[in-house]
Amino acid sequence: MGNPFRTSCIAIFVLIALAKASFSQEIVFSQPGGFYDNAFLLSLSCSTDGCSIHYTVNGNTPTAHDLTYNSPIALDESLFPSSNIYTIVNCPENEWFLPDSIQKCIVIRAAAFDETGNQIGKVVTNTYLIQSLGCNTHGLPVVSLCADSLDLFDYERGIFVPGVTFDPSNPNETGNYYQSGREWERPMNIEFYELDNTGINQQAGLRTHGGNGRGIQQKCMKIYARNEYGKKRFKHKFFESITDTSFKHLVLKPLTATWFRAGVNDHICNQIASQLNLETLASRPVAFYLNGEYWGIYFIHEKPDERYLETHCHVDIENVNLIESWWGECEAGTNDSFLELYDYIYNNDFADPEAYTYVASRIDIDNFIDYQIFEIFTANLDWPANNMRCWQEGDGRWRWIFFDGDIALIKKEFDAFANATYDGPQAYPSNSRATLFLRKLIQNETFEAAFINRFNQLLHSALAHESTKPFTDNALETLKGEMPNQVARFGNPESAELWEGHVRYLDEFLSLRANYIYEQLGEYYLSDEYELTIDAIYPSPAQDEIRVQVHSDKTILTDIQIFDINGRLLHTTPSAIGIGETEVTLPIHLESGVYVVKIRHESLAFVVIR
Known about the structure:
Layout: H1 4-23, E1 25-26, E2 28-29, E3 34-36, E4 41-42, E5 44-45, E6 52-56, E7 67-68, E8 73-74, E9 106-113, E10 121-122, E11 124-130, E12 142-146, H2 149-153, E13 186-193, E14 199-208, H3 212-215, E15 221-224, E16 234-235, E17 246-247, E18 249-254, H4 265-273, E19 283-290, E20 293-302, H5 306-313, E21 320-323, E22 330-332, H6 336-347, H7 353-362, H8 365-377, E23 389-393, E24 399-401, H9 416-420, H10 432-441, H11 445-459, H12 465-479, H13 483-490, H14 496-525, E25 532-540, E26 545-552, E27 556-564, E28 569-577, E29 580-587, E30 593-599, E31 602-608
Parallel strand pairs: 1-10, 3-11, 12-19
Antiparallel strand pairs: 2-5, 4-8, 6-7, 6-9, 9-11, 12-13, 13-14, 14-15, 15-18, 16-17, 18-20, 19-20, 21-22, 21-23, 23-24, 25-26, 26-29, 27-28, 27-30, 30-31
Helix pairs in contact: 8-11, 12-14
C-alpha cells in the first residue's frame, strides 16, 4: 500500500506544475512593438485551445471584462488611449500645466483567459509608434512604460499623485510621490526601442526618484529588474560611451528635473566627467510615453548604487561600503571605515608628511583631486553639502562618484573654490563638515602641488572649451527636433527658441569658466616672492602645441606668453603653476622660426622647424 501523504504531495506538485505551464502560455503578436512608417493589421494568437484573448489600449492590465479579440486589429487613431491621464493633477497645483492636447501612441496589452474568466497566460505588451499616425520622435529612441492607472494615480496607493500623504502646509516634501521603499514600488511593463526596434520589453518595478524630481509634474523615476517580475537584468547596450549591456537598476530623469531651462546640465556634466579619473554615469536622451500618452523628453541613465559599482568596477557588492553624504550616511555596507577616516583627518595636521602618507593610503588621491576639480569647475550649486558619494571595496582606498549636475554650469562667476574650502557657520550649499577633506589635505605641499598642477592640466585639456563644445553642440542637435513636443506637453521650457538660447548659455559658461577659475585661484595664490625657472620647451609641430616645463618653489597664478623674435605678443595663456615641476601645454600653431616664452620675469627662446 502506497504512502497517502506522498501521493498527495505528488498530486499537488503536478497541479502546480500544470498551472505554471498553463500560465506560461503567452499571446503571440503578429508584429512586435516599435517604430513603423504606416499602420497595419495586427493579429493575436494563443496556442491554448478554448481560450479567449482580451486586451486593453489604455495601459492597464487586461481582464476578462476588457475588449475581446476576434479578428485582426486595424491600428488607427481609434486605438489611442482615451483615459487622458495627462489631465490628472500630479504635483502642487500652482506648478501644474494642462496642455491643450497631447501626442499618443498605440499600446496593446493582451492575455489569455479560460471559459470561466481566469487568466491563464502572461500579459504581453507592445507599443506601436506609427509615423503616419503622428508618432515622430525626431530621431530619439523611445521608452514606453505601462502600469495600472490605480498604481500611479489612486489617492491611497498611486505613486504619481499628492494623494493621502500630501500636506498642503509642506507641499515640497510631502505627497505619495515623496514616499520611498519597497512598499511604494509598483509593477509595470517597460519597453525601450532603438530606431531599428532593437531594445527590451519586460516587466519591472517602478518607483519615484530623487528630491526635487519627485514633486514636479514630469516625474523622475527609477526602475528595478527583479526575478519576481520575470527578468533580473535589463539587457541591452543602452549607452555608446560604455561597453556594459546588463543593468540591474536604471533611472529615468526628465528634462525639467534641472533648475535651469536648458535641461541638459547633468547630461553634459556626465559626458565631460567621463574623461576624468572618476566614476560617472552614462546617460542618453529618449522620448517617453506613459500608458500610451506622450510624457516628454527624458534621460535614461545609470543609478549610482552598489549595482553600478558591481557593473563598472567589478566589485563584490557584499563587500562594498557606499557613503551618500559627507555626514557619513550609509547607502550600502557600513560607514565605520569612513567615520574613522573622517576623525583622523579632523584630528591631524597635514603639514606633517606622515599624516598625509597615511591618508594617501586610505584615499585614491588622484580620483579625489579630479572629483574636487570637476565639482569646482562646473560650479555645482548643490554641492558639497549635498550630492556626494564615495565608495570602497573591503578595506580598500576610497573613491568618489560624480552624479547630479542638475544645478551645475549655471553661474560662471561663482567662486566654487571658496565654496569647496568654506569653514563657516552656514549649512548649505557648503559647510565645514563637507569641506573638511579638501581643507585639511590642501595644507600639505605635496597634495597642493598635485591639485594645482592637475587643475591646470585639465583646464588646458578635458575642461578646455574645444573639448567641451562638442557636448553642447550634440545636445542641441539631438534634441532640437523634439523640443516643440516637450514645450507643448509641459510648457517647460517656454519655447524651443528660448531652450536653444539656454543651451548656448551652457556653451558660454564652458568657454569662459577657466578665466574665472584662474582669477579666483589667483586670490589665494598670487605672490611676489617666488623662485621660478623655465626648464625646457618642446614644440610639437604635428599637434600644433608647445609644451613648457616650469619649476617653482610656490604655487602661483600667472600668464604664459609667447613672443616672436621681433617682440610681438602672439599668445597668452593663464596658468596655475604648482610647487615643483609643472608642464603646461599651449595650443598654438607656429611657423618655422625663433620664438620666446615669457613667464613673469623669466624667459627662454626656442626654435620651431617645420
